[in-house]
Specification:
The structure holds 2 protein chains of 2 kinds.
Chain A (H helix, E strand, L loop, with lengths): L8 E10 L2 E11 L4 E5 L6 H8 L7 E6 L2 E2 L7 E4 L13 H6 L3 H4 L7 H13 L15 H14 L4 E5 L7 H16 L3 E5 L6 H4 L2 E6 L1 E7 H4 L2 H8 L3 H7 L5
Parallel strand pairs in A: 3-8, 3-9, 6-7, 7-8
Antiparallel strand pairs in A: 1-2, 1-4, 4-5, 9-10
Chain B lengths: L1 H8 L1 H26 L3 H22 L4 H25 L4 H25 L10 H4 L7 H20 L1 H9 L1 H6 L4 H17 L2 H4 L4 H13 L5 H25 L5 H19 L5 H28 L23 H10 L2 E4 L4 E4 L1 H11 L6
Antiparallel strand pairs in B: 1-2
Classes of the chains: A alpha/beta, B mainly alpha.
């Protein structure tokens, strides 16, 4: 064994506050490369805020973020992002294919228009999420699950090393959920790192191999098997975790 | 027709119309972005906030040079937007309150300065009051040149940063995550919207200019689901309103241009909201009506079937009013549709109806899955 690998993501002492209320308080996190990691915690635990501060979309009051040992600004090209589906206006006049091509814009650079190559890459990504037939559909005509697939396809054309996904299973049908999980696992198996905001404890062990338990402070982080213990979950959720663990599937 | 011909051959009128067309196009095209980014109210605040800038620019320079006045308008319109975001960020007031405050305070200050300017003995002050409600006929060739220059600059900028503007309008967070300078692009796009507004102030006036930003854009959105088409159509609607307004106000004495342009744009929008093929209210209502009729015919067909289900003669005629017993009202128009479909036919002179063989089969099929009631 050599030196431990450089963590894909390292977060040091991140603190975010809105009007004197701490949303995140002194959060440290190390995500090893090649894991599929969930961030779980109760509502208002700061899951989305943590994701956004790692991506530089929220300016933290304190703390630093490193992507593969370097500041974020130098590593933008390594990251892909799937925001919450509800964060955009789906009545925007554009098509599914067009949204997916947006994932290539930064690679294209200024003043250059997406062309045939971008179109091909976008079609491939749509095929991977099973949305080929909907490429030219106006995005408001897509179901919630289809919209989420389009968002995932946009991240896929970014062809990134580290993916950030914010509640990719919120309001989607079961088929879409399974399809998305399969793609996430495939990405992980190809050595990509994924950090996913998740809210369903009942599927945690089935979908993810690493987890961060978050409730304003980082309660614990590590492999799901040793981290999502009843005691630590109780600390995170304040006693409601047993109910949450069981509400989803009978198999647990 | 003669009047129109002489209007068009008049050089001044032609110049004015060119100016109005271009300022209408710019406002309509950029208005689409204001609309999609939910900045329509900001447009109103900006145009009102530009008034003190126009007046102060005139006070300081003593000239009606369009470039000077536009610069003044730009500066104070910009100051207004900055103030709106400063108020939203640093107080607990929400954006709508901030917009309201900026709009009324700036407009008030503008009116006061305008009164002062009008009392000055300086020459050339005439025409400054037209900035309130707009008067295209006061536009000189140099005004039109300024509009053309700035309008084309706006549109070029829009074309250059097209994909970036599209992305930050649809999903600013994703744009920022890819490393695009989202704040800078946002500022640039807002500046273009401010510019599109200020070049229209002389012709349309500060009070109504925001309507020329919002109305054509809203109309255009009704017709297409492609951003490029919506923007081009918004520009076209804006230009048409501009030309129409300039023509009407030139042919009627003392008719201010701004209100006419805005009325035209609003009529266009109203028609678009009502009649646009896919998103319009009327087609939507007709589709709704058609689907209700479909359900209605289906239910009546099934009820008629139930009436004769255990009858040895399934084609015995019945009084359609008997359907009231099961809570259905067989309107004549609905029955007529069913006759057209070949499901029922009238029998005798009492207006009774009976199922046809085809209708009976259809009803049996559609009831098929259900258990008998």
């Amino acid at each position: 064994m050599g030196d431990p690998p450089v963590p894909a993501i390292r977060v040091e002492d991140i603190t975010v506050a809105y009007r004197e209320n701490p949303v995140l308080w002194d959060v440290d996190l190390e995500v090893p490369p090649g894991v599929l990691m969930a961030i779980v915690g109760p509502n208002g635990a700061g899951k989305t805020t943590l994701l956004k501060s790692i991506l530089g979309l929220v300016r933290p009051a304190a703390g630093r973020v490193f992507i593969k040992g370097e500041p974020l600004s130098r590593q933008r090209r390594l990251i892909g992002y799937v925001p919450q589906r509800s964060s955009v206006d789906w009545d925007f006049p554009t098509t599914a294919l067009d949204v997916v091509m947006m994932g290539r814009y930064s690679e294209l650079g200024w003043f250059r228009r997406p062309g045939r190559r971008e179109r091909e890459l976008a079609m491939q990504a749509l095929e991977r999420v099973g949305m080929t037939d909907f490429a030219n559909r106006q995005i408001s005509q897509l179901s919630g699950g289809q919209q989420q697939r389009v968002f995932l396809a946009r991240a896929l054309v970014q062809d990134s090393e580290i993916y950030f996904l914010d509640e990719p299973f919120a309001g989607v049908d079961v088929t879409t959920e399974k399809a998305i999980v399969a793609i996430l696992k495939e990405l992980r198996d190809r050595g990509r790192t994924l950090l996913v905001v998740h809210h369903d404890l009942s599927t945690l062990a089935e979908y993810f191999d690493w987890v961060l338990l978050l409730n304003v402070r980082a309660i614990a982080a590590g492999p799901v098997a040793t981290t999502a213990t009843p005691e630590l979950l109780a600390m995170t959720y304040g006693g409601r975790s047993a109910y949450l663990m069981n509400q989803g599937g009978a198999e647990h | 027709m003669d009047a129109l011909g002489s209007l068009l051959s008049d050089f001044t009128v032609r110049t004015v119309m060119l100016g109005c067309a271009l300022l209408g196009f710019t406002a309509g095209a950029l208005g689409v972005f204001a609309l999609l980014r939910r900045q329509s109210l900001l447009g109103d605040a900006i145009s009102h906030a530009a008034l003190p800038g126009v007046a102060i620019a005139f006070l300081l320079s003593g000239s009606r040079d369009p470039l000077v006045l536009v610069l003044g308008a730009l500066a104070s319109g910009w100051l207004g937007t900055l103030l709106v975001s400063a108020i939203t960020r640093s107080t607990r007031l929400r954006e709508d309150s901030a917009l309201g405050i900026v709009l009324s305070v700036f407009f008030g200050i503008g009116l006061v300065i305008l009164v002062i300017v009008n009392r000055l003995p300086t020459a050339g002050k005439a025409g400054l009051s037209t900035f309130l409600f707009g008067n295209a006929s006061t536009m000189l060739t140099r005004d039109v040149w300024t509009i053309c220059l700035l309008g084309l600059a706006c549109l070029c900028c829009l074309a250059l940063f097209w994909k970036e503007f599209k992305l930050i309008s649809f999903d600013p967070q994703f744009a920022a995550s890819t490393g695009l300078p989202e704040r800078m692009l946002d500022t640039t796009l807002t500046t273009l919207i401010v510019l599109a507004i200020v070049i229209g102030l002389q012709a349309v006036g500060v009070v109504l200019m925001s309507a020329l930003v919002v109305a054509p854009a809203a109309a255009a959105r009704q017709f297409s689901d492609k951003l490029l088409n919506v923007v081009l159509l918004g520009g076209l609607f804006g230009a048409l309103s501009g030309i129409g307004g300039a023509m009407l106000s030139a042919s009627v004495e003392k008719l201010p241009t701004g209100p006419v342009i805005v009325v035209l744009a609003s009529v266009l929008t109203l028609l678009a909201i009502l009649l646009a093929p896919h998103r319009g209210l009327l087609p939507d209502w007709l589709r709704h009506l058609a689907s209700r009729r479909r359900i209605e015919t289906r239910r009546i067909l099934q009820a008629l079937y139930r009436l004769v289900e255990s009858d040895p003669d399934p084609f015995r005629p019945h009084d359609p009013n008997a359907l009231q017993a099961v809570g259905l009202k067989a309107a004549r128009s609905t029955l007529a549709v069913m006759v057209d479909l070949g499901w029922v036919e009238y029998s005798g002179e009492r207006g009774w109806v009976r199922l046809t063989a085809e209708g009976w089969e259809e009803a049996r099929r559609s009831i098929g899955g259900e258990l008998p009631a």
